[in-house]
Amino acid sequence: MHRRIRYAVIAVTLVLVASVTAGPFATIQPVAAEPTPIDACTTITEPGRYVLTENLRDVTDATCIRIAASDVVLDGDGKRIEGTWDGDNVPSASNFRDDRRSLELAAPVSAAVTVDPTPQVPNETPNQSTPNDGAQSPPAMFTATSLNAPTDEILGADGPLTPTRPVERSPASANETDAPGNDTSPDDTPDNDTTPPSETPDNDTVPPGQTPGNDTAPPAESPDNDTAPEQPALTNVTVTDLRVTGWYVGVYVDGADATTVRDVEVRDSGFGILLWNATNASVVTSELTRNDGVGVVVLGATDTSLFGVTSERNELGGLLVDGSEGTSVREGDFSNNVVVGAAVDFSNGTSLTETVVERNDETGISVLSASNTTVRDALVTSNGGTGVDVRTSSQTLVTGSTVRRNDVGIAVFRSPTTRLNRNIVSDNDRINIFIR
After folding, report:
1. pLDDT of residue 88
2. For labeling, which of 84, 396, 407, 410 is most exposed (least CB within 10 Å)?
């Protein structure tokens, strides 16, 4: 009798302990919110997860999905957004080659997906190049001579020739010269003869009681209350698993922080992915193919990361990094493009690591007026022009790379701080390494 009572007490105690122990764990399990379905073009103004539930076809809106909130995940779920872009406002290959920084994108930027809190005023048609009043100014993607001369202007039948295009500006190495001995240690000290001395205001011309210069400085104007307040930059936005065709720009990120574009495919459009003034943006395992412009454009951005990106068969190029800081490109494939595989212009701290750059019609990798650019462990083969072309740049490092079967292997112009280390450069048609 006592034994049965004791067993019963033990059993009740175990049940109570199990209930107390399991109770808290059962109640703290988070319940994932259901994603918000999207079956039409829209503007996202609240944080959360959104999923595209239908293919969107024949879209005529200037922007289909505009993300105007932080902490948003747009899951395309493999669906398509198909626009009606007619091929306007993309520079020709000849213009892009000769002056790839003198052209502008059409404004407002028409895109399948835009990450931007500020609405753009639509044009009468999505492809109109002249913006209406109040429209967002276009990014100045291209604004000085590229100097990306065709191979025939570099090498002739009798040997090297002087490139025909003059250097218009070289902010990365303004004091470099072609004198012997400057190849390894250029003088970066400013020339005192050309540096204007600071001018002291003439006290005889300043009336008593006035601060010099005040007569020319206009008074600060009060802000116009009618002007809309500036929207804060967005942060922590992800666009994933989406297919885009027929747009001027596939995915356009304007000034946002920590944006991720993952597993996105853009083809048969103008430009694939455009990151403009973005910070800490990432493009991961995305494909940009058969576009009339450039597959990926990194413009005025900071600390951008590209990993596993394939950008092939684009009319102008696979990748353009322009006016940006700290761009990292790893395990990318920029092949079978027309003008250039990957171009780094007027940027600092760009690295191309384990990239494949093959069978581009003209240049493989172009480095123009850039600083601290690294090409590491790259495969640069079978390009119709120069494999790696470095011009008016400082502190460029090409290391551990294979550069073979191009018209010219590696060409270095007015960039005496360029270092070539442990590369395999062979079997190029006209010359393996050319330095001027």
Report:
1. 77
2. 84
